[in-house]
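Regression test attached.
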Amino acid sequence: MSAVTSTRERGITPFFVFGLALVVGAAWAFYMSAIYYPTPNFVTAALPTILGEAVAVAAILAIALWAPKNE
Amino acid sequence: MPEGTTSTGEAAGEARLPVFEHVSFLDSAEEAIRKRLAKVRILDRVFLLSKPWIFRITMLMIVLSVFWGAVGGFDIFGYQTQAYAWALGQPLHLSNQEIYSALTLHAIRMLFGFAQQFQMAIFGVLVVTALGIKPRLKWMLYSSVFLLNLSVILIEGPFYLMPQFNDNYFPAEGWYFYSPLGIRGLSSYVISPLWYIGWILLCASVIIWAAWVIVHLRDWWVAHGGLRGTERLPPFLLFILATVILIPLGYVTVLASAVWDTFNYFGVGPVAPLLNQLVFWFFGHAIVYLLFLIPIVAYYLLVPIFAKRPIYSYRFAFAAAVMFTVLTPILAIHHLYLTSLPVWSAWLTMVLTFAIIIPSAITFFTVWMTMKGVKASEWEWNAVTMFLALSFAGSIAGGLTGPDNNTISFDVDLHNTLFIVSHFHTLALLSITAGAFALTYALLPVLVGRFWYSPRLAQAHFAGSAIGWAGLVMFMDFLGTDGILRRGFMFQLDPSLVFDQVMITVFVIITLLAQLFLVANIVLTIFRGKEVHAEGLSLNEAIRAIASSTHPHPTVPIKDVPFERKMPRARREGAERAWVATVAVLLVAVIVAATPAALSTSNLFTSPADAPAGTEWVTLTGEQYYWNVQESGPITGTFANVLVVHAGQWVAVNATATTATEGFYIPFRSLPVVDVQVVPYTWSYELFQAPSQPGVYGMPNAEFNGPWFGQDVGVLIVLPPAGGSTLGAYSAAAGAGDVYNPPVWSAAGTQLVSDQEGIFNSSVPGPTLIAPAGPVSFAWTVPMASIGIDNYLVNVTTNDPNGQQNWLNAHNDTLPYDFGVYTVSVTGPTNHSVATLDPVAGTVAPIKVGPRNVESMSLAAGVYLYGLVTPIPYVYDPSGQSSWMTGSEAGNVMGLWGVLWVSP
């Protein structure tokens, strides 16, 4: 393996960048939803949905890391 | 994308070409025109006049979509300059009609002139090139393009047809048309019938295009053996197929709605606004998902190309396409959660809308996993892949705020606020447009035959767009979170709201400027780009080569590499199944958790409340542009735009409307938000508890209902206890967080000044004045400079820009309406009192324009109204030019008033 190739393979992969994009997008959405927390019906109306989404994001990250490569 | 696919495929379909394709008048006429135009170099280059007809018409559609996109950009710039001016207390240079129609036309031009046309252009050429089909039925595609662009022109109003101009030409309707708003004979605000005719032609255009694509997909299917064939469509084409199935399903419903409205416009047919709106939303929902297929197609097309390997799971992509197609057309009701539709229908739609998360979840997982195993050295971050990543993030951000809207009890807080507009623009800009730009950077040079001229311009375009879009939707969201309504540029000038509005303006400008980099790059590419020599390249290689021209220092080879599948399908699909199962379980959990609140919320809107003893019963009738309030219960009375209750009292509302859909909305933050849609000819219901602090709470109409939508704000007056009170507790509690509360000013020393919108000090209603009992005085003025054709206070039909002031000069500078101070008198026993507005002696007199007026009186503790406390009729009809053809504006407007609170 050449030195050049070795350096590049340590670089940031598209899988990582798109995963980061997913996390950033999700964080944005959660923030936009969570800033309603002062409203009285936040807990009964909004929280179940937000928690469901948060668990889904955690799950997709875990499953994606566990899943086999596209080879 | 099948390996080895080329951009030509003359064989398929050759034998089935109809005869007229070779000898038709269209062919010969087009050829004659083409030859003439091709002599002009700029036209030849821009419109690809030397290329095959499918490339020519695709380029024409792209140029037209860019044109409409540019016009739509100017629309929003025009709107935002006025919103900015309002926020900074500067004069407005556009009328209400122009401001609101700028928003309407921005949406129409962007959604249909730009996005829909772009989708048709790219999807059409992708089908024929990727599948190697010879394009045919030229007349269908030309007809479709002609009708689409004609429809956008007609929707703009009779601008090109009528010799004299007035504001009524422009439709201030909303991109979705809520029957009966705009319909002659049913609404006070009437738009030109060209609006509806334009929509009908738009439907015809898009359905013709979908038929054209279906014909070509059939050609491919037949050429590949039909039912006996073994070749399968590439994944991205599954979603183009979904598009052409969904188009007729979606557009037929808006066609039905538009035809219905057209009949109503001419006095024919039954009038049923809620049903009409429901029919419309079957389209209104579908169009967003149709356009969302642009980035979805971009992911499924481009990610495998740049990853140099097939999609992670074809079968799951197929399942996603099927689910997407089945669920999209049936979700209309989630736009009408706050109306009085049956509870079961709202709940079922909530469940089905949650279900459509599954195909999206599959898509994002499958696309993402396609990249797993791709080394950093094998992937190039050019304009195509950067826009793909941005679109991916935007889809997640916009997608995950969707379930918030879909949770019925949460939708009460969000409905019709700028949160929704932010959610939509996160998808429209960061997801859909970013995906469209990825496709543009990948495919435009295939049409033009030249590589991108400047990688730096592409990078600047990406950076500017990303920054502009992100800032735009973020500050829009901040306003929405505060409770500011969509189209609500007239709001209280709180410093944080002003800051958000200014920042939106900054990011709109950044967004628009960034697009100039793209336009410059396209022009330079067409005229100075290096020619693409694609001989020997596969389409995938050509796209990679083209994308590399947007990278300053490309290093990744463009050549296809042989791919041998090592990972068994079962293992990959096992991961997919684990993900889908997880999502399904979570959806069930969320639905179970959300159901009780959803049912009770929906039930609240659809049936009269089972109210506790002592409840105030209120019948609201929404007019353009005020609430007619009739109270019974402990307090009896009739008011315009004022609802009078005791502290902490339960209030049961039965609401209907006459000429436009309205929204009864009190955006509390420390109390539950009150929000219900009120559709003409139906009844909606609401039950809420009034704040415990006596005070004046803003109560804006939440549904756009015409050009004086901004003035349509009432107040909930929570009466003080006997003997009166200060507003100390109210102010300490921040007025329950209602962002529409008028500011509280001391009457002493106050100078109220009316502006060009006919309101006091940029506040609707005017500032709440406070004073101690005894001698009270304040000053007010209606400056002559505030009077003009856009100010409802002087109703003079003339085109003379000084006509209104001339009228005043001829009438001793006096308006035919009274300014006064009125006691909100509540007399009788506490449980059975009568509330009336009684004039304070010596305060009521016709409004004199120009001089400073001082009101001085002695008042007991209590609540008073000041100003022009009844709606006044207004008709905008300069020199009698408004007609049924141009559209017309009328209504009863109430803006020059406020509350005077006198404490013990």
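Expected vs. actual: identical. The radius of gyration of chain A is 18 Å.
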